[in-house]
Write a structure and sequence with these properties.
about 60 residues; about 0% strand
Length: about 60
């Protein structure tokens, strides 16, 4: 298992959670989530700002279950 698997798995789990609640996403968030998934799957680490945006989006869309 690659060393990067831990962070990628965690971010991809958050992205999956967001995608399962797509109706709660804004258009910007939907585009951001799609773009971030491609970036991570291409092996490129997200920036601090991207991680903060993902966390904020994930918190909001999963707050109601």
């Amino acid at each position: 298992m690659k060393q990067t698997a831990n962070w990628t798995d965690e971010y991809l789990r958050q992205i999956d959670d967001c995608e399962r609640r797509e109706s709660r996403l804004t258009d910007w968030e939907r585009n951001f989530i799609d773009s971030l998934r491609r970036q991570i799957e291409d092996g490129r680490a997200p920036t601090v700002k991207q991680i903060e945006s993902l966390d904020k989006t994930w918190e909001r869309v999963t707050a109601r279950g």
